[in-house]
UniProtKB/TrEMBL annotation:
Belongs to the metallo-dependent hydrolases superfamily. DHOase family. Class II DHOase subfamily. Pfam families: Amidohydro_2 (PF04909). Residues 81-180 form the Amidohydrolase-related domain. HAMAP family: PyrC_classII. This is dihydroorotase. Gene3D superfamilies: Metal-dependent hydrolases.
Length: 362
């Protein structure tokens, strides 16, 4: 297949292993966009206000999501916090909660209740290892803790390595990898360590992220060389790397009205999640980062659907359900908004031409 010229692609439904669905009216607006982006399985982040730190609240939230977006398999996570003891891990595992998200305190949106001292959670990690729960990591350090000249993500990598050494059977996912160094670090770990790659880190760099509020997110997009390593990593087909959009909706006015450099962090890609990955890979081909024929249907299905499901020990996608992508000249609209216009979120890459996506169920 030559991605640049292909007119029609048929793929298994995507599994998006990192989504932000928010609460209330914003949740009702964004949850239905999961399927629009070709996704049937979504791993939901717990950084709500307040964060999801009890099993009951997670289960309640799951019900709300299922009501807002029927047909999506929502996998749930807890927010790592002092109250997440080994006993809570046992309860969470019995209740079907999939994993626990570790946010170093203060590194991103709604992470003030995050972790300041990792050692305090060693018993919790041991319980997660025993119950085979996943540890999802926002792998960045606070700006004040990074050595000069080193990115916040690179400065976190020794912590990833030491956690993996201490808990070798704990399945760990380094979320939204944004640097060549992180890709190397994940490859150097054993098979229990994997990483998600977003759509937007495949097309944004620091040049856009610094100055366009709709391109600003954590981890901050880096150099063109980092972006291109992520693209090559997908084309290599390594099963340690899979899709997690980190689509992070913020109300349009909070982005547009923010003072320069002060917009809330998060890029919204959910309604075109699959298409934005395709677009970024196409641009990678145009720049000569990967070969014309490097992106086969197999490579796409592995990255977007199979690798993530396998790492999470989920069944394969139902073979009778497919997503069909066709070039019909459609462009990404400016925003997604509620019927009465009161809730509105700006789309990443508004105006750009993308494949049109439809679901095919035999
Ligand atoms: C996320 C959000 O808005 O919740 N923001 C982001 O920039 N990615 C949080 C996160 O995943 O860091
Ligand atoms: Zn996120």
């Amino acid at each position: 297949m030559h991605l640049k010229t292909v007119q029609r692609i048929e793929l298994p439904p995507a599994a998006d292993m990192h989504v932000h669905m928010r609460q209330g009216d914003l949740m009702k607006l964004v949850a239905p966009t999961v399927r629009q982006g070709g996704v049937d399985t979504a791993y939901v982040m717990p950084n709500l206000v307040p964060p999801l730190t009890t099993v009951d609240r997670v289960l309640e939230y799951k019900k709300d999501l299922e009501a807002a977006a029927p047909g999506v398999n929502f996998l749930m996570s807890l927010f790592l916090h002092a109250s997440i003891t080994p006993e809570v891990i046992a309860l969470a595992s019995a209740a079907g909660i999939t994993g626990v998200k570790l946010y170093p305190q203060g590194v991103t949106t709604n992470s003030d209740a995050g972790v300041a001292d990792l050692k305090a959670f060693y018993d919790t990690f041991a319980a997660m290892e025993k119950h085979d729960m996943i540890l999802n990591i926002h792998g960045e350090v606070l700006e004040s803790l990074a050595p000069p000249g080193m990115t916040l993500e690179e400065a976190f990598l020794p912590t990833l390595k030491s956690l993996h050494e201490r808990f070798p059977d704990l399945r760990i996912i380094l979320e939204h990898t944004s640097t060549a160094a992180a890709v190397e670090a994940v490859k150097a770990c054993g098979p229990s360590v994997a990483a998600t790659i977003t759509a937007h880190h495949l097309y944004l760099t620091e040049t856009e992220a610094c100055c366009n509020p709709h391109a600003f997110c954590k981890p901050i997009p880096k150099k063109p060389t980092d972006r291109d390593v992520l693209i090559r990593t997908i084309a290599e087909g390594n099963p340690k790397f899979f899709f997690g959009s980190d689509s992070a909706p913020h109300l349009l006015h909070t982005k547009n009205d923010a003072a320069p450099g002060k917009a809330p962090a998060g890029v919204f890609t959910q309604p075109f999640a699959t298409q934005l990955v395709l677009l970024a890979l196409e641009e990678g081909i145009e720049r000569g980062v990967i070969a014309e024929d490097a992106v086969s249907e197999e490579i796409l299905a592995n990255f977007l659907s199979r690798h993530g499901r396998r790492f999470y020990k989920l069944p394969e996608a139902t073979p009778t359900k497919k997503i069909v992508l066709e070039r019909q000249g459609a462009a990404i609209p400016e925003s997604v908004r509620s019927a009465d216009g009161s809730v509105e979120v700006g789309n990443s890459r508004a105006g750009d031409k993308v494949f049109t996506l439809r679901w095919k169920e035999a």
